[in-house]
Design a protein that fits this description.
Length: 527
């Protein structure tokens, strides 16, 4: 086993005063427990014993530590000052290869992790907090590439924040798309008697950092957005004249490398395709319909942890009806739901959430048409129906737009949710639906287009004649390898209303239902 070298410096060295310059007015000082920038970084490197000492490089003007990615690291002795229940890390780094830990505080087996900032093999920055097991962790990975470039990266953990805001990561002040795993249990354990390590983590899987570290700021609290911006700017300013920070990270929060692939998902049908799922009980109350239509408890987007902010979908877009163009997916603005209440959504929100995770290097695009009370025998009639013509008129320019901009445009499927308006023509439903799917595949030039059909009839168990429509969908899915039936039916209207409706007695799906359907689609698509 490699003995961990301890950098021996006084408890006072962990305070702020010794490392701060008199004119550092722009640097937030409240809660700053570790400031390793400039001469402080140089001094700490000199204290490390060979052969684990990172190389001190002053050639750029600003002291930099060069880690070889093999066995260089720094170990700072345990101190109560470093055991944190909330934290912010700001660091100037240039990773040059492999997977490596910038700094972290963990137990000897890397099971309990108080905090960790690292760079993955693909150059993405990650931050982690973990309790006693892997199921008790909050892990965030940001989709901005920092490999072979100097960047100021910042990670912040706020245990009081909700959902995706518990851990946030930014690169030179720019936020980006996240892959986030939220904890199923407590993560608050601190690391008494375990050193803070720079350049590796304890245990067999050391994950030695390879590259340059030009500074580290560690706070014992989650900085505000304004404070974080100040700390990031301060550290960037210290490097001015020494290194050139990547210009990509000064721009808007987009990936450093523009995705070459566009992932397209189509949505069509009637009301449940357009969507009427509620954001939350609060938004229903705001729309003044809560008394008429009480929210089915535990079924909203908020309950399902489906984000309802634009920032949560940085790589997702939706085609603007009529003439376009694509707009960033913006909840409460352009989801094209079926109620006048703008705080509603359809399957596009959970699909965007899951597709961004499944395709982390791609942009996601939705083309959607789901107005209320539309039947298959006139409005959606293949080739001639008004809704068919409108939907096709949207797909054609939207796809042409994407093919000009992306090397690869891939349509991963279409969600079809329709049938309630076809009771009068239930006998013709099978023939009409087959013709519709055939026409769509021919007119879009996608002969193998996967179509995901939500099985109808879950709220119509008291209507025997509706069974014809359900049977027709089953027959088509059995005959057509590219048509997949999505089943939610629990056997009775009562059970289905309780499980899947946004309001008991309303035949409209909830966020809970759309999330379940989205998971089914992702599982089928992965086969």
């Amino acid at each position: 086993k490699v003995a961990l070298d301890e950098v021996r410096f006084s408890r006072g060295a962990l305070g702020v005063s010794e490392f701060l310059r008199p004119d550092d007015q722009s640097l937030p000082k409240n809660g700053l427990v570790l400031n390793l920038v400039g001469d402080a970084l140089a001094e700490i490197a000199k204290s490390v014993k060979a052969p684990h000492q990172p190389k001190l490089d002053r050639s750029k003007g600003m002291p930099m530590l060069q880690f070889d990615g093999k066995d260089d690291f720094i170990s700072i002795p345990e101190s109560d000052v470093l055991d944190l229940t909330a934290w912010t890390i700001v660091s100037l780094i240039q990773p040059t290869g492999g997977e490596g830990v910038v700094l972290g505080k963990a137990d000897s087996k890397s099971t309990l992790i108080n905090y960790r900032l690292m760079v993955y093999k693909d150059g993405k920055v990650g931050a982690l907090v973990r309790g006693p097991t892997h199921h008790q962790q909050i892990h965030c990975k940001m989709n901005l590439n920092v490999m072979n470039r100097f960047s100021v990266v910042a990670a912040r953990f706020d245990p009081a924040a909700k959902g995706i805001n518990k851990i946030t990561i930014s690169v030179k002040g720019a936020s980006g798309a996240y892959d986030l795993n939220l904890a199923k249990g407590p993560v608050g354990a601190t690391m008494h008697n375990a050193p803070l390590m720079i350049g590796r983590q304890p245990g067999k899987n050391a994950r030695h950092f390879k590259g340059d570290i030009g500074g580290i700021l560690l706070y014992n609290r989650a900085l505000s957005d304004e404070e974080l911006a100040s700390a990031t700017k301060w550290l960037a300013d210290q490097s001015s004249g020494s290194v050139k920070l990547t210009e990509d990270h000064k721009a808007a929060p987009v990936a450093a490398v523009e995705p070459a692939e566009a992932i397209v998902f189509l949505i069509a049908g009637e009301a449940n395709a357009g969507g009427v799922a509620a954001f939350s009980e609060e938004t229903v109350a705001k729309a003044k319909i809560k008394e008429r239509y009480p929210v089915n408890p535990g079924t909203t987007a908020k309950n399902m942890k489906i984000p309802i902010t634009t920032a949560a979908y940085p790589r997702s877009y939706i085609w603007k009806p009529q003439k376009g163009p694509f707009e960033q997916l913006t909840p409460s603005k352009n989801l094209q739901a079926c109620y006048a209440d703008r705080y509603r959504h359809g399957i596009e929100l959970p699909m965007a959430m899951l597709l961004e995770k499944k395709f982390p290097h791609s942009h996601i695009f939705f083309i959607k048409h789901g107005p209320a009370k539309r039947n298959l025998y006139t409005q959606w009639k293949a080739n001639n129906g008004s809704d068919y013509k409108f939907f096709h008129s949207q797909i054609t320019p939207a796809m042409a737009n994407l093919k000009k901009r992306y090397d690869n445009v891939r349509v991963v499927g279409m969600y079809w949710d329709q049938g309630e308006s076809d009771e009068k023509q239930a006998r013709r439903y099978e023939d009409n639906l087959q013709k519709l799917f055939a026409a769509l595949r021919e007119d879009t030039g996608l002969p193998d287009l996967p179509i995901y059909v939500r099985e109808q009839g879950i709220f119509q168990h008291d209507k025997p004649e509706f069974k014809r429509i359900v049977d027709a969908q089953i027959k088509i899915a059995n005959k057509d390898a590219n048509t997949h039936l999505l089943k939610l039916d629990l056997g009775s209207n009562e059970k289905n209303y309780k499980a899947w409706a946004w309001s008991i007695g309303k035949n409209h799906l909830s966020s809970k239902a759309y999330l379940e359907l989205s998971k089914m689609i992702i599982q089928i698509e992965a086969r």
